[in-house]
Amino acid sequence: MPARPPRDFRGVVVALPTVAAAASYGLHALVPNNDPGLQSNFYPELILLVLAAAVVFAAWARLLPRFRPSGVYAAPLFTAAIITVAIWDLVTTKLALLPMPYFPGPELVLQGLVDDRWVLLESTFYSFRLLFCGYALGVLAGLTSGVLMGWFRQVRYWGMPIMKLIGPIPATAFVPLVMVMFDEPFFSGAALIALATWFPVAMLTSSGVANVPASYFDVAKTLGAGRHFLVFRVAIPAAMPNVFIGLFMGMGAAFLTLIVAETVGVRAGLGFYFKMQKDYFEFGKVYASLLIMALFFSGFMTLLFKIRDRVLGWQKGVIRW
């Protein structure tokens, strides 16, 4: 747990986002834009919205005792985020210290989000569909092959050399092969994502099952457990920490492959939108798509963390996370 600030300073800490948001708005209003033709509308409105939220945040932290520890913990993070965006606005829109159009300011990014909101929403849906299908197939294949290799020595004897040979090769290297195997670009993209997900999930699952302490099986056998019980009620639950590490690694590999798959064959999605806007030198919209990708990935990872916390709740007193 992070160290708590003294009680006398908790009120100051929860007020930091309000101060940072007010300072950001004043800085944006006082310093003129480097490009006089650029009309700043979305960014000031966003700062005012953040300022209002910061005031409510500070009020809740002071008036609600249960909310206060969480508010004190989150306030520095929110403050750092506000300051970072303010510096971004200063070095791009205001002072033009970075070359344009490659480094647009937050105003152009927000304008790209607003102008192409429906296209971005549709692209997010297509990316979600492709990622979900490919990741689900990769997890299913990885769990199945990992359990088989971890439990059966003969399967491990033949399967592990194949994994060591194919697994380290980036999934994107198989783009020509899957494009020949599948006429539909969606299936080829899903196959690439599944391949990228399969290797870390299979490797970590196999390692987890193979390294379950023998004492677990001895106790279960003493109580009359059969093979089915040993696999599904002893080996797999004991290997779940390793399995979730593989799921997290597979998620990262799936996102990297998703972008490549959409820029190569799939004619829809965030990766396709990113490539199209980059070709048109619309870098405000390029960064808008990157922002959506970051939120997209963060949402998936948060969901996976929630599932991990639910499944491995018994480990919270043993392992800190």
Observed structural traits:
321 residues; mainly alpha; MetI-like fold; 2 domains; 12 helices; 78% helix; 0% strand; flat
* N- to C-terminal distance: 10 Å
Q: How much is the radius of gyration in Å? A: 25 Å
Name the CATH architecture of the largest domain: Orthogonal Bundle
Would you state the CATH class of the largest domain?
A: Mainly Alpha
Major sheet, described briefly?
none
Quick one: CATH superfamily of the largest domain? Answer: MetI-like
The total tally of domains equals 2
Q: Could you tell me the CATH topology label of the largest domain.
A: MetI-like fold
Low-confidence stretches: none
Q: Report the mean per-residue pLDDT as an integer.
A: 82
Element-level helix/strand string: HHHHHHHHHHHH
Shape: flat
Helix content bin: over 70%
Q: Strand-residue fraction?
A: under 5%
How many β-strands, per DSSP?
Answer: 0
Number of DSSP helical runs: 12
The structure class reads: mainly alpha
